[in-house]
Amino acid sequence: MKKKLASVFMASTIFAGMLAGCGTAKEGSGGNSDTIKLGVNLELSGNVASYGESMAKGIEMAVDEINKSGGVDGKQFDIVKVDNKSETSEATNGIIKLTSQDKVTAVIGAATSGNTVAQAQIANDTKTVLMAPGGTSPTVTVDEKGKVREFVFRTSFIDPFQGTVAANFASDILKVKNAAILADNSSDYAKGLSASFKETFKAKGGKVVAEEAYVAKDTDFRATLTRIKAKNPSFIFIPGYYEEVGLIVKQARELGIDVPLVGADGWDSPKLVDLAGAEALNNTYLINHYSSEDPDEKVQNFVTAFKEKNKGEAPNAFNALGYDTVYFLADAIKRAGSTDSSKIQAELAKTKDLSLVTGVVTIDKNHHPIKTATILEYKDGKQVFNTKVNP
Known about the structure:
Blueprint: H1 2-19, E1 35-42, H2 49-68, E2 76-83, H3 88-100, E3 106-108, H4 113-125, E4 129-132, E5 152-154, H5 159-173, E6 178-184, H6 188-203, E7 207-214, H7 222-230, E8 236-237, H8 242-254, E9 261-263, H9 270-276, E10 284-288, H10 297-309, H11 317-336, H12 341-349, E11 354-356, E12 359-363, E13 369-370, E14 373-379, E15 382-389
Parallel strand pairs: 1-2, 1-3, 3-4, 4-5, 6-7, 6-8, 8-9, 9-10
Antiparallel strand pairs: 10-14, 11-12, 12-13, 14-15
């Protein structure tokens, strides 16, 4: 307990000292006019390390491309990376270090909503641009009082949109009339998706026959799944992260639940197949940000370049979101003609029709990107492009 309190006190002391000099927007990147210091605060270890590792690969690829092409207005990106260990406290410590010690121009991360929100107040207070590649909760850019977080932006679409897409897919494409929801009740991400799915599905005439919950790091879902099976749903919506979802899918199929299972971007990890098994994943779908099988020329150029850089590995959505976030930021810096954080912030807010790998992006008043969603289907352990859904 003493050690924990000491750590909190130390972080608070550093933060207080940092705030003493942050009344105006920051210019430059650590004193070197030829570089732009880019903080990267990701889950590189811990429960959702797969997401952070994937985003890091995409970020590094984009930085390499930009630097090799001459940088942004002649300035080279210089990455300063921290591992938040998939914990909110470490995400907070990470942004304190990046802003107070490393003096970065902007921060990219985290991969999840909770670890991004943990940085948001510090980003605003220090006038540091914070770019969320995969934080899909509305609270990433808009606080609990409904106020927009001025210096925080996102590349991904938001949870309510994913939940709405899942409900429309269930009702309009799969033609199901009743559904069950199994969600992580310790996760704001899962709660937001569940709420939007339920609202949209019921509005379209569907009935939610069962709502069950689990907690992150649970491993045995059989009792819960048995209760769901007894309600005879035609479809189960499972908003959650891959570590639990993989086991849920496996155990559901073992219990004879063969109805379609649908989730969102939290499913997107190569480890999902290892946990669930390729056969169990048949007749499952996920709402995602992009597909490597999308025939769009921009997507295919990215896929080819990524495979060349990563020994034939096909890029997942988190690779693409990390990659796009760097180009999103670089575009704003170029239009600002400056590394002044307030000028960059202003240009980010004005972003319109910016063509990225994960879609054409326009930023709305809440700093949410208006963009398409992609529906993927698992077939024998592989993600197959199904369709795109416009906002």
